[in-house]
Design brief:
Elements lengths: L12 E2 L2 E2 L8 H71 L6 H24 L2 H29 L13 H35 L2 H28 L1 H4 L4
Antiparallel strand pairs: 1-2
Length: 245
Amino acid sequence: MPSKKHPQSKPYHNEGVIDFTIEEFSPEVIRENKPLIINKIKSERLIYTKLLDDILKNCKHTKEKLDIYYDNLQWYHSIVQTSVIIVSTGSTFIQSILNKEDYKDVLSTTTICVTTYSGLILSLAKFFKLDEKKENVHNLRERFAELHNKINYHVDLLKPWENDNFYDDLNTEKIERWKNIMIDIEKEYLTIIDVKKILFMEFEKLIDSIVQKKYTSKHTKSENKQKKKNQKIPENNPSKLNPIP
C-alpha cells in the first residue's frame, strides 16, 4: 500500500518553488522540503543584498564627492577667516610699535588698507554664499550617512543567512523570523528608494553639472590612488613576503 504524504506538504511548493505565504510550516513539511526552503531563502537574500549593495555603492560615491567639496569649501572658509585675523593682528602690532606722531600717514594708510581688505574679502565670501554652501553640504553629508547606516543595518540582518551552517537547525521559528525580515526589508526598501531620490535631487540642486564633473574627476583620481596604495600593501608586508613555516 503506497505511503501517504503529509496533507499540508502540497500547498508549500509548486514545481520546486516554495510558497512563504503559508501561515505556518510544520516540522514534517520543513524536513521534506528543507532544500527548497533553503534555496528560496538564499535566493531572496541574494536579490535584496545585491539591491542594497548597489544603492549603498552609489550613495557612498556621491557622499565621497560631497566630502571633497566640503573640504574645499572649508579650506576657502579657513583662508578667509585666517587672512582677516592675520591682517588685523598685523595692523594692531604695527600701530603699537610705531610712533603715532612720526608715522601718522603710514598708520592711517595701514588702517584703511586693513579695513578695506577685511570688508572686501568678507563681502566676497558672503556674495559667494560660502557659509551657506558649507552648511548645506554638511547637512546633506549627515543625511547620506544616516541612509548608509540604515542600509548597512539591513545588510547585516541578511548576512547570517548566507552561511550554510545557519540552516542546520532550521525550524518553524527560524522560518517565521526570515518571513518577518523580508516583510521589514520590503517596506524599508521602498523608503530607502524614496530617501535616495530626495538626497540625489538635493545633490543636483546644490552642485551644478560643471562642478560635479570636477569633483567626479577628483573622486576617481582619489579612488585610483587608494587602489594602487592597497595593491602595494601585500608587497611591503613582511608576513606576506616571508611566511612563517
